Amino acid sequence: MKTRIEIATKRNILCQIPSGLHNLKIKRMKYSGLVLMLIFSATVSKSQNLHFGIFGGLANYQGDLVDKYYPKHQTNGSIGVTVHYELTDKILVRGAFTFARVNGADRYSADDSLKARNLSFETPISEISLVGEYYFLNLYEHRFSPYVFAGIAGFHFNPYSYNQKGSQVYLRDLSTEGQGLPAYPDKKTYSLNQFAVPFGGGLRYALSDNIRIGLELGVRKLFTDYLDDVSTTYPAEADLLAAKGPDAVDLSYRGDELQGGNQLFPSGSQRGGAKYNDMYYFTGLNISLRFGSKSSGNRYNNKRGVGCPANPM
């Protein structure tokens, strides 16, 4: 057992340890706390440049199965969420997720030859985009500003139609133009995930420094002509029947469904116009909200009168 003298000796040794080590720990804790405060302050400062918003409006497409920009029966809805980050007061980066639906049908065409083709499609579109926006006026100084934008996007689609029984049938796997069949090596199966180039412009209105509302038209340049599953020529009926079955033949050519329509499968004849790729576009409103306040060099004495007037000297 330890004697009282040994215990007392150890206590004396501990008591003789310089208090500097203890002070050093306190200083380290203070410095750590200061670093955490600086990181938190920087995060808050960055968040003051963030605008969170929602988008809603119209969705349309241009391709082989539509001949107007905003047709009555072929205009659908779109909805999305957005995040804006201010690089400067006039240059912003916007990330967005948008969901939409587009469709087209020959029966609405003014061209009798297209009506006789009798094709139709519909597809959902799920898009993620990143664009840069440039505002011609500073919205901390003006209520209104026109703006333009451009960037990059990725989207998923999956065109489908309805057979004569009213059942929904997805078209890509049917190879309606012979895509992916050994007899047509130049016709590749198209991917359902594609890149696009979004660009457009609009007009934005600042309700306050933190709330903005904008009217926008955004076009997507695509690198595929198969958004509507129509692009080139009909395959040979025998090839399609052997590889994909009667459903593929029925949905590749549908003119025989019309009264008085041509009952012969038009093997090898033109089915679509492959000269230009398809595109889709959104028209709608974006409302954005920023949490917190932000100082601006022109915040006081600005042209639209936001903030307090400068004190006279």
Which characteristics define this entry?
Porin; 5 helices; alpha+beta; 10 strands; about 325 residues; two-stranded antiparallel ribbon; about 20% helix; eight-stranded antiparallel beta barrel
Description of the molecule:
By secondary structure, the protein is of the alpha+beta class. The protein has one domain (49-289): Porin. Helix content is 19%, strand content 36%. The chain has five helices and ten strands; from the N terminus they run H-H-E-E-E-H-E-E-E-E-E-E-H-H-E. The strands form two sheets. An eight-stranded antiparallel barrel has the order 1-2-3-4-5-8-9-10. It has a two-stranded antiparallel sheet with strand order 6-7. Strand 8 (193-206) and strand 9 form a beta hairpin. Helix 4 (237-244) crosses helix 5 (246-252). The longest helix is centred in the N-terminal third of the chain and has 28 residues, at 20-47. The radius of gyration is 32 Å and the shape is elongated.
Short overview:
The chain is an alpha+beta fold and 313 residues long. The chain has helices at 4-15, 20-47, 112-117, 237-244, 246-252, and strands spanning 50-62, 76-86, 91-105, 120-135, 144-157, 160-162, 168-170, 193-206, 211-222, 279-289. It has one domain: Porin (Beta Barrel).
Number of extended strands:
10
What is the CA-CA span between the terminal residues? 83 Å
Q: Structural class, judged by helices and strands?
A: alpha+beta
> Helical stretch count?
5
Percent range for β-strand residues: 35-45%
